[in-house]
Design goal:
6-stranded antiparallel barrel; 50% strand; alpha+beta
Length: 117
């Protein structure tokens, strides 16, 4: 493991110590309560015909893979329940989730606020 990889892994461990909060991760009737670090991904979409670019942000969650247990890998529509809000795992471009570290111990899942009544 390179020095940079070690620093990244140590940084994620520290981040969980300072910024993680308890959430529920749900798929159908299965639920796991685990720590997650909230984040955001900048999303940009361009219309080639009109020349308009729309910029937005998507809610992300960083989880320890081992905490997700049998619910790994993430699937579209999985729900993260946090502070009275529900976020549904959703693709950003082609990507629903990605590794957050070279050791593949942490995963970043993209989501959007569930606005259904």
């Amino acid at each position: 493991m390179s020095r940079m990889d070690r620093l990244l892994s140590e940084g994620l461990q520290r981040l969980f110590g300072y910024a993680a909060r308890r959430v529920a991760y749900r798929r159908g009737s299965q639920v796991v309560y685990l720590d997650a670090v909230p984040g955001q991904t900048r999303v940009e979409a361009s219309d080639q015909v009109e020349g308009v670019t729309v910029v937005g942000k998507v809610q992300d969650w960083i989880f320890r893979v081992e905490d997700l247990q049998a619910l790994f890998p993430p699937r579209e529509g999985d729900a993260v329940e946090d502070q009275g809000h529900v976020y549904l795992a959703a693709r950003v471009g082609e990507e629903l989730w990605r590794w957050s570290d070279p050791d593949r111990k942490y995963v970043r899942i993209h989501s959007e606020l569930d606005r259904r009544p």
